[in-house]
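Problem: given the chain below (323 residues), write out its structure.
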Amino acid sequence: MRLSCAFAPGLATPDHIACAERLGYARAWVFDSPNLFHDCWSTLARAADRTDTIGLATGVAVVGLRHVVVTASALLGLEALAPGRVVFGLGAGGTAARTLGRPGARWTDIHRYAVAVRDLVRGDTIEWDDTAVQLMHPDLMGSPRGVEIPIVFGVGGPRGEKVARACGDGVFTVRDGSGAGFDWHCRLVSGTILEEDEDETSARIQGTAGPGAGLVYHQAYVSGNRALLDRLPGGAEMAAEFDALPEERRVAAIWDGHLAQLSDRDRRYITPAAAAALTSTGRPDAVRRRVEALAEQGVTEIVYQPCGPDIPRELTAFAAALA
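Solution.
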């Protein structure tokens, strides 16, 4: 099993990716949610200039935010900076779309988009919006020609898996119950490795594992899964607060700090114990057993997202736990 990492991109992320390379991580995946984080493409380009071996991937690029030519050009530019290291991850972009007040992309559209980008980076001319388009970079631009870049789809169910089997190389998942049967199955995990003198009540866990737990709460709320919220510690109370907000303020409140840091509201309900229970948090041997269980389920690439004020510490501790 490969050990990779993922980041909600900020100014320091390229340096954190360089740190991950030194620690032996196989690949760095960068989230694409422009309302919440820095741009994934510029982050990956800056990381390419700081690294030599680590893979660089969008995790995952969101269909509907960019014209296919824009995405294909970005891929070629990144491939020029990091030859053979680039992976194109893409998907519906539920979070990115919802922060714009839109639903995620349909899988028929994702399939069409993926094929179009794949053909463009190969050097083909395609038809898009009733227009013949192609990449026409002059030779002096230094763009590679006719490249094949692996495609990994962020999936959460059978429709996405069907598209991944039709035109993809692998899948990226965030929960159990999807991605079975793929030779390349990436799974996002979060959490923190406890110090010898820590337990699951440590205040540090809120900052390091809390954002990963917040994903569960936020997705349960926006998907209308009140049964899950009722089972989560403080979930019903958090939902009641969101319900009471005016609609024009609710979206910003839900996604405040999402996948990066807990908002003040989140911290009232996502306790250290709750954050530990919902993530891969624990002693090194316990976290190692959790990862081994994922491998038994068919996961081939663990994608660890470090959070908190000391990202190098989190990357170092997680890599050491799985060594």
